[in-house]
Structure formats: structure tokens, C-alpha cells
Amino acid sequence: MIRINENYLKLPGSYLFAEIARRVTAFKEQNPAADVIRLGIGDVTLPLPPVVIDAMHKAVDEMAKAETFHGYGPEQGYNFLIQKIAQHDYAPLGIQLGEDEIFVSDGSKSDTGNFQEIFGTDIRVAMTDPVYPVYIDTNVMAGRTGALGQDGRYANITYIPCHAGNHFIPELPKEKVDLIYLCFPNNPTGTTLTKGELKKWVDYARANKTVILFDAAYEAYIQEKDIPHSIYEIEGAKEVAVEFRTFSKNAGFTGNRCAFTVVPKTVMGYTAGGEAYSLNKLWNRRHTTKFNGVPYIVQKGAEAVYTDEGRKQTRAMIDYYMANAKTIREGLQNVGLQVYGGVNAPYIWLKTPNNMDSWAFFDKLLHEAHIVGTPGVGFGPSGQGYFRLTAFGKAENTAEAIQRIQTRLKV
Amino acid sequence: MIRINENYLKLPGSYLFAEIARRVTAFKEQNPAADVIRLGIGDVTLPLPPVVIDAMHKAVDEMAKAETFHGYGPEQGYNFLIQKIAQHDYAPLGIQLGEDEIFVSDGSKSDTGNFQEIFGTDIRVAMTDPVYPVYIDTNVMAGRTGALGQDGRYANITYIPCHAGNHFIPELPKEKVDLIYLCFPNNPTGTTLTKGELKKWVDYARANKTVILFDAAYEAYIQEKDIPHSIYEIEGAKEVAVEFRTFSKNAGFTGNRCAFTVVPKTVMGYTAGGEAYSLNKLWNRRHTTKFNGVPYIVQKGAEAVYTDEGRKQTRAMIDYYMANAKTIREGLQNVGLQVYGGVNAPYIWLKTPNNMDSWAFFDKLLHEAHIVGTPGVGFGPSGQGYFRLTAFGKAENTAEAIQRIQTRLKV
């Protein structure tokens, strides 16, 4: 008799974005004339930059001729892209990476979801709360958690609350943990850590043989100094940290699928007997066995992001979204709402008025202002009483949404 | 202390294709003038069909404008592609599939590698021998096997030998097994099962609550009648079988990455208590949590394969490769070699002369005829004494290779 992985049964039946969709559909049926503006999902709206379009057209043409056709590529990605990543994303920060320390992939969702596979199932996992749900769901599937409690927390996971009370700066866990997920600039809160704060985590990891999975998906949105773009800016991080980056949010690749993961050869994991193994080698085995590379056309598109023109065009996209972030942040502050994030990240995290429940505020915003956002509690129990808006919309819609909040919302 | 997944340490250090590359490099260093022809790896060489190129150019242009830009798509694939698959690949065979029974993905390697995740780790797994290494390696990683024995077999796996002695027709296992991997037309042997033979497996699975993972990557190469193109042509298969298909081998997508997996809602897995759960629901949860969809551009390219022109163009590609297969098969027979496959598949599986060891024949072929193939033992212990040649080369190279075998090889 074929047995299922019963860990899947621990996952709740209804998903955050499915529930949002259900409520929006119901609202639109009752209010067919309403012009609903979506500031909920973290998807980009600007088209791909012209340099990327040109590069992809050229690559499509290469695929049309036997002499320039590309079949299977290296699972880890083409060197032409890996070299650009090392040279433009890391060398200017004083970080030297070997070409075999960078793994090109189809997305940070896949990579942050899959990376836990190379670890034992009896390790202790810690993550900030609220958090990107993929980190936790994939650990549930792997059997590293107990059941989901009434308090919205899985047993055997160390939750590190981030809220206004601690300025969204996570505290080091009191118990020893083996694996830590950190995402800064943070999704969903849009907040950041300074180098000094991130150093505490690297030091903890070095002292405890802990590995940090550092999700830097929103690195390109950093505007302020002293906010690290890469965890490897912190001394010693190459011994303990894996870093995830993506072209989704800096170059509009959400529908084009390209990302990469950095696994320095010096990051170690251990057997029960204490023998050290390089995670680079384990991840390489995983990546080459279960993945077959990113489309050639897409990698050529990603390469173009690193040209002078490409960097200008992607910078302009980020500036556009960050102008939206400013519109949202300041517009909400003007009506007396407490807001966080939106300075070094495309996410604005607002405290609901009068400690309103996240879903109640979702309904209020939808019904009074016809705006869709994301209830903070969907990202974890510490997100209760918070709400996420994103800066990825069109500028005119974003401005209209904020005006509606200012004029229609009964705060 | 972060513990690694120690199951990875059971995997052997050197891989088949790495060892081939090492030997070829050494040979070329000693013989720089030699014109080496590669008939080893299963990668295509013809460029993408013109309809696919056109569709991808159009899709790139759509990504250049805000009004037609596509960000995140459905993780399961766009309906425009799913509908074509159901309508063209299955309906003509009398197989009706719901749109939510087809999951578009980035490759059959990923899907056949990842699918085991939704099953328990204590199930009994069976696979034919020789076999596509991904099936076994991913089960090793998941902890379903013991150590690799001196005989080339992992403990706790049921190997089903396929060789000339049984006409490459696998026998039903004597012990009860829970999960069976079948690939027909077969990689690496190029052999097939008739509907009657496949029915035995479906009947076994229905009787034992076993699931069959059916890899139909080479379905488009079938020429003869009575060879099933889909396992769902067999009565009752929708209760027990999952089917994997790809655009890699029928439309040249090895560097373009698009495939799909069919999971009928009626295929069940069970809890320890015997409660039945639909695998469709479990796989949907896995696929949406750890994967973020295939690039829009690539899915538009795949859709074009189903146009009248696309079907003509891909049929011409297959005919081209199958002409190579005929060249290889008949050429080898002419020098007295025993060959299998190559009739309904792009793979030719030859018995080495005088029961020569697979690697010894590899060296002989490389040194005497300057041809690279794949040692059969690389696919499992029952592949010892066999050798794989592929029909994916250029016609002129393939003809030249066979002429060399006929004139230079000291059989």
C-alpha cells in the first residue's frame, strides 16, 4: 500500500492568497461597478527592460539555427551569467566568489524551498515571525515540525517575533538553533537590519555551528547607507551563510524565472559524528540531480541586466516603485496610520487602527476603499494587527488608492 | 550544530557523464587531431521549429509592454497550454483529463525527481534495471534506500532486471512494492511494452494499492501499433498511474525547459491508518509551494507545437532522428552486433561483442573509431555488457560514425 507523506496533512487547507481571492470575488459579485485596486501581491507591473527584450530576441534567433542552438546547458547556469553576477553584484562589495559558488536557478521560491533538503530532519529551525510562508511550509513537508497549534505556530519551530515593540529587530534565540532563515530587506515588513545587527547573527551562527539562509531578494531596493546588500559584507559570513538573490524584483523577471543562490565552499554541515562536509558539494549534487538548468533565452536576458544600459534601466524601474512606496508611506502617515518599511523595500507594513484584526482591516479596506492588500496575520501570528501594501502597482493606481484611503476610509 | 542529510553520503562520488568527459578529454589530449563524434548524451541537435521561434518572438514582444506584460503566472501552467495538451495529446487517445489534472513544469527530470516527496519514506520502491539514474538518486537522497552494495545495487530497492534474456520485458516483482518507476519507450534500452504487457503492471498496481510513475518522455518516437503512447490507454490506469511528458525530445526543448505531469484525481495514496488521499491535491500543494511556474515565453513556445504547422515541423524532427536510429541499428547489425531499441525510440542499446565490459567497450570505441557512447553499466548493474548510442546527432555525423564502426572497429 502506497503511503503518503503525512507531514502534508499538517498544512492548513486554505491558503492566504486563495482566501484573498475568494473575498475579492465575492465583493465584486456584490459590487460589479467597483474599481478594485490591488496592492496585495508582490508581483511587478512594469514590462521587462528594453535591453532584456533585445537580448532575448537575439537568443531566440540563436535557437533557430543548428550552429547556434543551445540544448542542455550546465545545471548550475552558464558561465557568461555567473561571471557577471560575481563581477557586478559581489566584487564591488569586496566579496570574491568562485564561479562554482554561484548556482543559477528558476527562482528564489524554489531555492529557499528546496535548500532545506540537504539538512537532516532532526535539526532545530528558527525563523522570524512574520515570515515568507515558503520557509515554513517546506519545513513542515520535510517533517521538521509538529502540528500547527491554536496560536498559529507549529511545534518544534523557533519563532522570532518582529513587531513595532522591538522595532522589527529580531532577538537572538534563547535555545540553540541549527538553521535560521533571515530575509532583509524583509518580506513582509519592509524593514532592514544594519550591518551591526546582522553581525550579531553571523557571530551567533559561527559560535553555534548554525547555518543562516539569507534571502536578499529585495537588496536592489536599499537606499540608505549601513544597510548590508549582502550578508557576506559581514566578517565571517562565508563560514555560515547561504545567500538567495533573484532577478524577479530588480529586473521584472517574475514571469521570466531566473534567480541564483550563493553557497561558499567554506560553509559546513556536520554528520552525527561531527565530520564536516561542504554544503556547496551537497547543494551541487541536489541541484544537478533534480534540476536541469534555466532556459538559455532567459539566462541571456538576465545577462543583459548587467550591461551599462541594463543597470540604468533596472535602476529606473526600482526608482519608479520606490516613488510608489513613498506615496503609500507618506499618504498613510498623513491620515495618522503607523507605517513601517517602504524606505529600503517595496513593502509597506502598517499597524491597523485600534488594533483591528488583520482580516477585519482587509474587509474594511476592500469595502470602504475598494483596495486589496494582504492581512499581516497571513505571514504568521506576529503579523496579527498588521497589514501589507506593496509598491509594485502602477503609479496612477497607487496614488488613486492612497487618495481613496485618505477620503473614504473611516479611520 | 547543523546536521546534513547523511543519505547524500550514500551516493557515489563520481558520476557517469563526468567519468565519460574525463576519458574523452584524456583521449583528445593524446590524439589532438582525432575527430571525435559524440553519440552519447541524450541531447537534441536540431534547432527549435520555426513555429516555436515565431511564438517566442511574439511573447518576448508582449513582455516589452505594460499592457501585455506577464508577471507571475499560475504555478501549474497557463490554461492556454494545458487545454492544448488535453485536447491534442490525450483526447485523440480517448483519454479525458481535467485542466487541474495537468501540471506544467520546467522538466521531467525535476518532476520525476521531485514526485517521490509526497510519499512516505518507508515505502518499498521498485524500478527497472537499467534505469534513468534520477529515479534512484532522488530516492537515495530521501532516505528510502540502504547503502550501495558491491553489486551496484542499493539495499531496500527492488530492481527489476531487463536484458536480452527476458527480451527487456520486466517481470512483476515477487515481493509487494508500493511505488514503481516505468519508462517506456525506455531510456536507456529503447525498448517498449505492448498494451498487453503494460496492462499486467496496471493490474498489479490496482490489486496492491501501488502507484506507477510512468515516464513517457519518448512517446513521440513510437512508430509501431499496439505500443501505448500513454499509460491511460490501459483500463484502470487512472486509479494508479502518474504520467510524465516533456517537450524536450519531441520539440527540441532541452535548452528551453518545458514539460508536464498528469496526476488524475482518482490516484490515491494512503495514511498509516488506511485513509485515502488524492495525490493530485498533494502534488498541487508541493508544486505551488516549491515552484513558481514556467516562463511565459517558454509556455507560448510550447503552445505553438500544437498548431498544424507545429505538428508537421516536430514530426519532421522526429523523422530525422528516427532515420539516424535506423542508420545506427542497421549499420551495427551489418557488422554482426546484437542491437535492441531504435525502432520506437531514439536510443540504440547494443550488446557488447564477446560480453566485453561496458567501460572496456567505451574505451575500444573511443580509441579505434573515435566515437563516444554511454556504457550501459552506468544505468545500473543489468546494463553491464551493454552500450547506449543515441540518434540525436546530425545525420552526416551519425552516418560517418557507423562507417567508422564498420571499417575501423575490430569486432
From TrEMBL, chains A, B:
CDD domains: AAT_like. GO terms for biological process: lysine biosynthetic process via diaminopimelate. Its EC number is 2.6.1.83. Pathway: Amino-acid biosynthesis; L-lysine biosynthesis via DAP pathway; LL-2,6-diaminopimelate from (S)-tetrahydrodipicolinate (aminotransferase route): step 1/1. Residues 35-405 form the Aminotransferase class I/classII large domain. It catalyses: (2S,6S)-2,6-diaminopimelate + 2-oxoglutarate = (S)-2,3,4,5-tetrahydrodipicolinate + L-glutamate + H2O + H(+). Gene3D superfamilies: Aspartate Aminotransferase, domain 1 (3.90.1150.10), Type I PLP-dependent aspartate aminotransferase-like (Major domain) (3.40.640.10). Its cofactor is pyridoxal 5'-phosphate. GO terms for molecular function: L,L-diaminopimelate aminotransferase activity; pyridoxal phosphate binding. Pfam families: Aminotran_1_2 (PF00155). Keywords: Aminotransferase, Pyridoxal phosphate, Transferase. NCBIfam families: DAPAT_plant (TIGR03542). This is LL-diaminopimelate aminotransferase. It comes from Acetonema longum DSM 6540.
